[in-house]
Amino acid sequence: MPTPFVAINRDGPLVDVMLDCPDNGNLIDSAMSEAIIEAVTTLDDDVKVVRILSSGPDFCKGRQSPMPPKDAKPSAEMLRRVVAAPPLALYDALKAVRVPVVSVVRGEALGVGCALAGVCDVALAADDAVFQIPEMERDIPPTLVMSALIGRVPVKTVAHMVLSRLRLSAAQALQAGLVSRVVPAASLDAEAEALTQTLLGCSAVTLRAVKQFLHLAPEMSATGASGFAAHLAATALSARF
Fold it and tell me: For the chain, where are the E strands, in sequence order?
C-alpha cells in the first residue's frame, strides 16, 4: 500500500517521487524507503527519467530514528537489520536505476537528505539550499550516508563534511562536487522542468546507455572503458534502424 508521506506519480516517460511530509521536514522512515524502492525497481522500458522532489520548504532533514531504547540492549545483528539495512537498500536502489535520476533540492538536506541529493545522477539545488552530515554531533559514525556519497563526491569533501559537521551552502556544495548546478530559489521549479524536458527529448535507449556508462566506467581500466563506450554507442545507434 502507498504511504501517505511519499507520492509516486507517473507521467508518460517521467516518474516523480515526491517526499511529502513537510510538517517534519520530510524525514525519511522505513515505509517511505520501501515505497521509493518499490517504485524505482519496477520501472518499465518506457521510463526515461526519475525525479526526486519534495513538498514544503525543505528537501529532507534526515531520517526518522529507528534506534531502539537504550535499555533494550539490541544485538549488533538487530541494529544492522533495523538501522543499517533500510537506508543502504534505498541508496543501492537509486544507484541501480537504469535511467538518469535527478534530485531537486531546496531548503535543508541533512544526513539522509544530503545522501539522497548526492546519490542522484544530477542534483539541481536552489541557492538557499543547505547541506550537512550532522550525525557525529550525536557520536554516530555516518558510514551509511558516506556509502551513498563515496564514488560520487570527492573523498575529501565527504571527510570534511562528516568530521567538521559544517553546513554547506548551495554554492559551497557546488564547488565541493556535491551538486550539479545551483539556481535562484524562485526559478528552481522552472529550471528543473527545463532540464527534465531536455532529458525527455532523448530516447530511452540513449539515456540508459549514458546511465550505464556513468555507473560502470569509473571502475574500469582506460582500455575497458573505451571498449564499453564503443559497445554502448553501437547498441544505442543500432536501435534506430
Answer: 6-11, 14-19, 49-54, 101-105, 108-110, 122-126, 130-132, 168-169, 181-183
**37-41, 71-75, 149-153, range with the lowest pLDDT:** 71-75
Residue 1's SS3 state is coil
CA distances from 7 to 39, 49, 71, 148 (A): 10, 16, 36, 23
3-state helix, strand, coil in the chain (%, to 5): 50, 20, 30
What span, in angstroms and rounded, lies between the C-alpha atoms of 122 and 52? 10
Contacts with 45 (C-beta within 8 Å, 6 or more apart), sequence order:
204
Measured CA to CA, the distance from residue 8 to residue 23 in angstroms comes to 19
What's the distance, CA 10 to chain centroid? Answer: 18
Q: Using the 8-state DSSP alphabet, how is residue 82 labeled?
A: I
Q: What residue has cell string 517534519?
A: 24
Whether the model pTM is above 0.85: yes
